[in-house]
Amino acid sequence: MAQAAIELIGINKSFGAVRANRDINLEVARGTIHGIVGENGAGKSTLMSILYGFYQADSGEIRVGGKPVSIHTSNDAIALGIGMVHQHFMLVDNFTVLENVILGAESDALLKSSITKARSELDRLEREYGLEVDPDAVIEELPVGLQQRVEILKALYRGAEILILDEPTGVLTPAEADHLFRILKQLKDQGKTIVLITHKLREIMAITDTVSVMRQGTMVATRTTKETTVGELAELMVGRRVLLRVEKGQSEAGAVKLSVKNLTVKDQRGVTMVDNVSFDVRGGEIVGIAGVAGNGQSELLEAISGIRHAVSGEVMLDGKPIDLTGKADPGELRDRGLAHVPEDRHHVGLVLAFEENENTILGYHDDERYLKGPFLDVDAIMADAKDKIEKYDIRPANPRLKTANFSGGNQQKIVLAREMEQDPGVLIVGQPTRGVDVGAIEFIHKRLIAMRDQGKAVLVVSVELDEIRSLSDRILVMFAGRVVGERGPDATEGELGLLMAGVEHQEAAE
Amino acid sequence: MDMFNAIVQVLDSTIRLSVPLLLACLAGLYSERAGIFDIGLEGKMLVGAFAGASAAAVFHSALIGLGTAILISVAFALVHGFASITHRGNQIVSGVAINFIAAGSTIILGQAWFQQGGRTPALQPGERFEAITWPGAEAIRDVPIIGPIYAELISGHSILVYFAFAMVPFTWWVLFRTRFGLRMRAVGENPAAVDTAGISVAWLRYRALICTGILTGVAGAYLSMVQNGGFVKDMTAGKGYIALAALIFAKWKPVNAMFACLLFGFLDAASIRLQGSPLPLVGKVPAQFMQALPYVLTVILLAGFIGKAIPPRAGGVPYVKER
Q1: Alpha-carbon span A130 to B33, nearest angstrom
Q2: Which of A4, A73, B45, B218 is most buried by a 10 A CB count?
């Protein structure tokens, strides 16, 4: 075995009463890609934050290149050649690529020499690793895939030999993720050591050499990737067997509940995002919209749910039109049986500063179930919240806890519980399992299928192709604002992939 | 020619009136670019004015006055920093508190020390900054056009006026050409990026606030030691707030800030000039209307004429390391 680049020995870390890391031992060999998998809240990010100097371990030892080191700040980590690509990019949005790269690594008090140096260094990195990016581009104008590349460049510019990537593909399209993996392989070939934190097992299988599994703050196993299977890893992660593909019966499609005709939506800049889209969703079926992120799915969802102004076309809910001026009364749409689980639960779906029970009635707070005269009926709300917590297995089971303190998967369950329990006729769901761990994904999928089996019309938009394929009875593929094809649930990944990439569907069918 | 002389005079007073605004506006630029809202510009100018005039009167030196003004103003800036950076307090509340302390303490201390109803003693020559006459100013005063412009507009101001205008390109250079400026802009946009790059967010923000304190100190000294021959209670008269408005109007850019402050200064100068004289079309208007005009225009400009002003994104939010 090659020499260890990083060794963590007996790392412990507690936040108050929560033991985020217990007696963690980890050894990462030089020049390898090492995956760390685990559900949300398993302690992966905490462990890496300790390695990067963001937190201090309560006890334990860190060795880099065989030597014991103490890492108190990010600076110490950088000096030891450790670089980190955070899940939420640490970039200054209105700075150029160049400015972001030199920030904190300037050579002297004036910028001139740093900029010259960085320019030639970026040029070299670009040639060596294929990390192409325009050094003078402003970050906020770059797609996320390129922004991530800037993060990698930042780390390499600082001389990183060990690169930690925290959930790097969470924000990427499948094509961007593939490109990232090619870059990572190239970095590995050049002798860099890479630690990849993720909860997507497919990525682990595709790219890592070894993989460690974390569960509830402990390191439960380390495997050589070639000698393990997705099933084994999933089981290790959640401590029980999980169904990666949810069982479901044949759909019994009924009457058309939601009908979209010739819908066209433009964004603020006047660019057409949804281009003359038409489709129906019947009761008792799940229609999935697949597509690379940014091909108009978000805008389509927003227009249908009455949030965004549509230029032309119509949307009928149970045969009656929805106001498409972008000023639809959301309360009225709810009354008409349209429930919406937005893509962005942090900004649209929840008020993170509210307690859990308050979020479970958000938007339905003027429903008489929750009212006692003009006042909120606190007892009824609490009872309702507890009921949903139990039904949806929301953890921790505390309706008074601030919503921000729930993990991503549990936050999503709060939104789903709220919308599904209103017994809507039509359910629109954007990215049902984004940032959600394996156990919760299974649960959410089962719930969605249960909704379908009750005869509801379900529209799902997701950038996870697996999810679309396992849930949908019909799959619509969007590309550049248009629906470019419709397929059954048995469509192959390759076929859908070609459609998503904009290859004409005649060719794709061949 | 009368008309021309009148215009030169209005422009001359425009310059004089914009100087305190410009200094305060640049002061605010440093702190807001670093992500700290500073509504306490007003208070810091006021303590600077008071400390400057008091020290100058006691020690009979304009320079000691200026130094004291800067020292006290920086001290107040650090108090703001201690509350809002170290203790992550609300920046608006801290700023307002500083304004109150400044308004109250200057009067009380002034009365206790000098017994002149809150004023400081009138400053004698040598205790205040005198106008600097440029070489040849008197000689060419009578040359048409160029003469009055050179003698009135360019020559004949105190050193602090030239300092204020020199601070504009200097601030631009600091912001966009130095490491400190790059980091300061970054910390106002995304402190987490600065933190993960291994730079101390708190120390960076403190340094920005020290710059703010220095400039508000000079602004205060200008009010009490140049524009006026001593400190008068509440002599800042809302200039700190107008400077904040100018900062938004200027979209947090130094050169824009200069033009914004000159515009506000001009409105002020014009309103003084036009008081009591009849206007074409409308005739004579009450003096109060003319005095209100700059403020009315401020509201109109800010409401509709500047387009989209995007403040530094991390402005007003204390940085907490937890993710």
Answers
A1: 35
A2: B45
In a mutagenesis test of the A interface, which of B196, B203, B207, B310 is the best target, namely the one with the most A β-carbons within 10 Å?
B196
- Provide the whole-model pTM: 0.74
Q: Do B185 and A102 touch (CB under 8 A)?
A: no
Instruction: Give the number of A-B residue pairs with CB atoms closer than 8 Å.
Output: 73
Burial class of residue A120 (count of CB atoms within 10 Å of its CB; 0-12, 13-18, 19+) = exposed
User: Going edge to edge, which strands form the sheet with A474-479?
Assistant: A338-341, A426-430, A457-461, A285-290, A474-479, A482-487
Q: Considering the domain boundaries, does residue B205 fall inside one?
A: yes
Q: Is the residue at B89 inside a domain? A: yes
Q: How many CB atoms are closer than 10 A to CB A306?
A: 23
Distance CA B77, CA B41 (A): 9
Q: Is residue B303 part of a domain?
A: no
Instruction: Judge whether B294 lies within some domain.
Output: no
Number of compact structural domains in chain B: 1
Question: How many C-beta atoms surround the C-beta of residue A374 within 10 A?
Answer: 5
Q: How far is CA B131 from the centre of its chain?
A: 19
Highest mean pLDDT among A284-288, B6-10, B268-272: A284-288
Q: How far is residue B196's CA from residue B219's CA, in Å, rounded to a whole number?
A: 36
Which parts of chain A register pLDDT below 70? 1-2, 16-17, 40-41, 238-245, 269, 503-510
Residues A190-208 have pLDDT tens digits of: 899 999 998 777 888 889 9
Q: What is the ipTM of this complex?
A: 0.86
Segment B166-184, tens digit of pLDDT: 999 999 999 999 999 999 9
